[in-house]
Write a structure and sequence with these properties.
This protein has two domains: 4-18 and 172-271, Fusion Protein Consisting Of Minor Coat Protein, Glycine Rich Linker, Tola, And A His Tag, Chain: A, Domain 2 (2-Layer Sandwich), CATH 3.30.1150; 21-168, Jelly Rolls, CATH 2.60.120.1200. The strands form five sheets. Strands 3, 4, 7, 10, 13 and 15 form a six-stranded antiparallel sheet that branches. A five-stranded antiparallel sheet has the order 5-6-14-8-9, with no helix packed on it. It has a four-stranded antiparallel sheet with strand order 1-21-17-18. The protein is elongated. Strand 8 (78-81) and strand 9 (84-85) form a beta hairpin. By secondary structure, it is mainly beta. The chain contains three helices and 21 strands.
């Protein structure tokens, strides 16, 4: 005996999207490559770069990125921003199949140590910081080598600093949704959809998905309602009917203002 069932799949539910902007900051130190030297006071092998933050520059957080050549990826340099140690990470944005990692035996331990590729396949070190970690006018980034390395191989290049633009320049978008969200839509379909229609129209056992596409205006009304496919046995017409006769949707918004939104919904009729 065949039975009818319903499976509703929401392709787009309410989503919060943040489109942020970045502001680049010019560094005072003009060199492209950072060289490391021993600090006689602290006996650290380090390099420094300074930059100025203009007065009144508004931002929420920032990011520093730099390319690291011949760095041991398992023993990263210590990086300080205004004397505060930062939590830095490493990744390989341009790693290719022909990228060459080198292995060198440590004179201290006798163990092999790995070094990252040099050149365009170099690793990238990055860290983020909050607004409170910068001061107006003079700021300093210090990079300290924590383990003995071949300093003639080691290089830091392309150091860049970005500030995250203020929130009032962001676009905060919330997609349209059925009243009560996904759960509300499922309850409505369970009450309103004639799930037995394909079985009554002679459909064999199987799944009959219908992809419905429509727009939601700023008042929550549905328009441009259409089915992108028709599995037959009255399924597409029935899917369109329930959306056409349904309640108003909660409209999408951008920065608190209602906007027109596109929505897609898959309804799956099942004959068991």
């Amino acid at each position: 005996m065949k039975k009818a069932a319903l499976l509703s799949t929401a392709l787009f539910i309410s989503i919060l999207k943040l489109y942020a902007q970045s502001i680049s900051v010019n560094l005072i130190q003009p060199t492209d490559t950072f060289f490391f030297k021993m600090d006689a006071t602290t006996e650290e092998v380090s390099s420094r770069v300074n930059f100025k933050l203009a007065k009144g520059n508004k931002f929420n957080f920032g990011q520093v990125t730099m390319k690291a050549h011949a760095i041991d990826p398992f023993t990263l340099p210590k990086i300080y921003l205004n004397n505060k140690e930062m939590n830095a990470g490493i990744y390989f944005p341009n790693l290719k199949e022909d990228a060459i990692f080198t292995f060198k035996k440590s004179s201290d331990t006798g163990m092999l140590k790995v070094q990252t590729p040099i050149g365009e396949n170099a690793a990238e070190i990055h860290f983020v910081f909050s607004k409170s970690q910068l001061v107006e006018e003079d700021n300093e980034i210090k990079i300290v080598v924590t383990e003995k390395q071949k300093l003639n191989d080691l290089a830091i290049t392309d150091l860049k600093l970005y500030l995250r633009a203020p929130l009032n320049t962001d676009i905060i978008r919330v997609s349209s949704e059925f009243p009560g969200g996904t759960k509300g839509l499922v309850r409505y379909l369970e009450r309103s959809l004639n799930r037995e229609l394909p079985m009554r129209n002679g459909a064999p056992v199987g799944k009959y998905p219908v992809l419905v596409n429509f727009m939601v205006d700023t008042e929550g009304n549905i328009f441009n309602l259409k089915a992108e496919n028709d599995p037959g046995y009255g399924t597409a017409q029935e899917a369109l009917r329930v959306f056409k006769q349904g309640p108003k949707w909660v409209p999408a918004s951008e920065n608190g203002t209602n906007v027109v939104d596109q929505h897609r919904q898959t309804i799956v009729f099942m004959v068991l």
